[in-house]
Amino acid sequence: MVCAKPVYRAGKEGVTGGRPPWAARGARGEELVWEMQERIARFDTERFRTLGPGYLALSVAGEAGELANFMKKLWRKDPAIARPDGFAPVTQEDRAQIGDEIADIVMLCVVLANHLGIDVEVELARKLEVIDDRLQTGYFGAEGRT
Q1: What sign for the dihedral angle of Cα 17, 22, 26, 28?
Q2: Rg of the Cα trace of the chain?
Q3: Distance from C-alpha of 36 to C-alpha of 17, rounded to nearest angstrom
């Protein structure tokens, strides 16, 4: 299986055509989401060509399980992490482990998206709008009230 080229806005191909003219670096020079998706597509083409969508989805679930298990262990050490203000007890070492697990999850999600021709940046923007609409209409209860 060869990685599908992700199609970005207005049919512009990001994987082989370089950065489209409308794309810009972030204020601090960091990669934008589509640039990272393109970079992962190149990495995937070289390394993960034999993984199908079912395997990729199960791999995402497995990595999410590893993150959940790690967070469960942190919770046992300090139940305060369950509260909205519970970020302070998470040490730098723990944050590094959490970051590693999140990177595994995101990488696999982007690989899956690339193979299916899904533009992650567009989908994230769409989902933010959906969540905002739900918050504004009280869908999430007290969380939606500002």
Answers
A1: positive
A2: 18
A3: 14
What the block records as the tokens of 123 is 């989908």
Give me the CATH code for the 7-15+31-144 domain, please. Answer: 1.10.287.1080
Question: Which tens digits make up the pLDDT trace of 38-95?
Answer: 888 888 877 766 678 999 999 999 999 999 999 999 999 999 999 998 999 999 999 9
Q: Where are the alpha helices (DSSP H) in 2-146?
A: 14-17, 33-47, 53-77, 92-116, 120-136
Q: Is the pTM of this model over 0.90?
A: no
Question: For residue 114, which of 17, 45, 32 has the smallest C-alpha distance?
Answer: 45
The b/e string for 90-125 (b: 16+ C-beta within 10 A; e otherwise) is beeebeebeeebeebbebbbbbbbbbeebbbbeeee
Other beta carbons within 10 angstroms of residue 82's beta carbon come to 10
Structure tokens belonging to residue 108: 């696999």
Instruction: Please enumerate in sequence order all residues whose Cβ is within 8 A of that of 16, keeping only pairs 6 or more positions apart, or say none.
Output: 5
